Amino acid sequence: MDLYYNILSPPSRAILLLGEALQLKFNLISLDVHRKDYVNPAFKKINPQHTVPTLVVDGVAICEPGAILIYLAEQYAPAGTTYYPPDPLRRAIVNQRLLFECGTLYKCIFVYYSPVVLERATPVETDRQKLIEAVAVLDGILQHSAFVAGDCLTVADYSLVCTVSMLVVLKFELSPYAAVRRWYERCKEVIAGYTDLTQRAVTMFQKWMEQENSKG
């Protein structure tokens, strides 16, 4: 399996972490944002969306991170594990959390922080409020369960914890969200390789920011 990824991409890290949990061996192909590898014709032929992560299995490309996580769990998770539970209702909850991550939380983070980080623009208050509302929704979800889709770790936790790690790196104030903070610490403990991979990403992000700032 070829995995096109970038370690700075939270969805890419979610795939790498689930792959580690399932003891999978990917053929890793890192795409460099600075070189704009993701828009080269060869990659766009594989994935017209030219996004990472992209998983290629037997010549078939799977492009959305939620779809990749579900495929890996369905195909490789041992029987009896909870990564993607067999019960249709529980799966629906996992699916909902994955859709919330990509359609709401990740989008709010991207919209608010991208102009600030990449263009040094003035933060937009309405975008900040939307982000606050999204984090509050996640906090509400976690009020009565250990993980985002119940009391067992699922692929939705892999997806969301990597996205929330962006907020930590960007110094978003999480102190009002006790349930999110408890869950985040719990995921750090139970997801193998999380701390090491996240630290590598943070170090690379800091170096990238230093390079950007040096441009004046």
TrEMBL record:
GO molecular function: glutathione transferase activity
EC primary class: transferase
GO biological process, one term: glutathione metabolic process
CDD domains assigned to the protein according to its UniProt record, in alphabetical order: GST_C_Delta_Epsilon, GST_N_Delta_Epsilon
Domain GST N-terminal, residue spans: 1-80
Catalysis: reaction(s): RX + glutathione = an S-substituted glutathione + a halide anion + H(+)
Domain of life: Eukaryota
Annotated InterPro entries: Glutathione-S-Trfase_C-like (IPR010987), Glutathione-S-Trfase_C_sf (IPR036282), Glutathione_S-Trfase (IPR040079), Glutathione_S-Trfase_N (IPR004045), Thioredoxin-like_sf (IPR036249)
SUPFAM superfamilies membership: GST C-terminal domain-like, Thioredoxin-like
Enzyme Commission (EC) number: 2.5.1.18
Keyword Iron-sulfur: no
Location of the GST C-terminal domain: 87-205
Keywords: Transferase
Family annotation (Pfam families): GST_C_2 (PF13410), GST_N_3 (PF13417)
Gene3D superfamilies in alphabetical order: 1.20.1050.10, Glutaredoxin (3.40.30.10)
Family as reported in the entry's similarity comment: Belongs to the GST superfamily. Theta family.
Subunit-level organization: Homodimer.
UniProt-recorded name of the protein: glutathione transferase
Organism expressing this protein natively: Anopheles coluzzii
